[in-house]
Prior knowledge:
6 helices, oxidoreductase activity, NAD(P)-bd_dom_sf, oxidoreductase, SDR_fam, Sc_DH/Rdtase_CS
Amino acid sequence: MNAVITGSSKGIGKAIAEKLAKEGFNVAICARNAAMLEKAAADIRAVNPAVKVLAVPVDMGKKEEVIAFARQISATFSTVDILVNNAGLFVPGSLHEQEDGLLESLMATNVYSAYHLTRQLLAGMKTNRKGHIFNMCSTASYTSYPNGGAYSITKFALLGFSKNLREELKSHNIKVTSLSPGPTLTASWEGFEAPPRRMMEPADVANLLWGAYTLSEQAVVEEVIMRPMLGDIS
């Protein structure tokens, strides 16, 4: 069994990669920072030395690098059973104050990367008539908020992509799930001093993903929203 997780050198992506490796999946991971990526790969191998870990430095905001990553995946793994489109950048700020070009940059990383990688890997899933695609959306995919700006726009767009993909792939027996976590202890929240236990753990998202994956063949979780027990942080 093989899985692909983008943006997986830390946070939610790394937690998912470790969970899937623990369950016996070979994993392909990527991130921009090569040093952090290699450390993540070592941590994943420590979880389960029996699995293969393909770690490739990739800027998911660049189409040509996404395509090259897909080719390396196909050359390494005969099938892709799970694809987790997790790569993303979080830049808060109001629309009229954000720098010119930020929307285009965030769209490339947060939305286009998922579009291009999914397109490259879908042929094999269709041939095998199996696979599960998880798109890492957000509570920001559903609710507008002050200073959401370009980031919020991209998350609404990713949810739309995921919904459309779900409809297209029903007849091919390929599952599509939109995962939308709220505040989670990741690098995006560095510098924010939340009260203890006020935020979710990356492992919470990984465990939910595994639960959705292990349902019967005739069941699929289409969308799920996760929030801290006390709700969003305002």
